[in-house]
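Notes from the 1:1 (GR / supervisor)

We went over the backlog. Supervisor wanted to see one worked example end to end before approving the batch request, so GR pasted a single chain during the call. The sequence is below; no edits were made to it. Supervisor asked that the structure be written out right there so they could see what the output format looks like.
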Amino acid sequence: MSRPFIPAFLLLLGSTVLGATVLQEPLADAARLAQGVVITNTPEQAVPVREQNLDNGSIRVHEQGTISVRPVVPANPWHRVRIVNVGSRPFLTEEPSGSPINITSLTVAENGVGGVPAGATAFLEAVTVPATATDCSGEATGDTLWASTMVTAPLAVTFPTPLVVSVPAGSKVCLRASAAGASGDRVWFSLSGFFGTG
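Structure output shown during the call:
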């Protein structure tokens, strides 16, 4: 070893011995006192938060100007109104659709026997037909898309995310309504939506 490194080595060795013997207890006490601090507030002890980037009470934003937002009307909108007698199952689409059918709103109302509501059940079904079909007739089975029991007052349902009737490969789809209840009872169906993917 060269001569300038010997004093540096001895100083380092001395400080290590001194720290390990004489200063052992004060260093250990300091380490015990410096434990992590965690602040936990319950909802009853909530810390108030105040927005600091204010401009006369309004929050400052970088963007300037006005943004206009308006919904885009789908390219292929549709609307159907149909009176469905209890026990009947009419189709709501004139012909099968090769595109998805999107339902955005549905209203059903009962017109009971003699005008007195008896509480009918309303069903909306998706019926799959072959891709070569030109009408929806002749298909007996369908998948229930929506149902409501004991409809006595008008019931309006909106679907912000449309209720979508998908089209299986090699097929087309039709919508069908049906009602169950007292003989002579009727249910009014009113549907809106659009064809295609929007």
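Supervisor's comment: DSSP finds two helices and nine strands in the chain.
Batch request approved.
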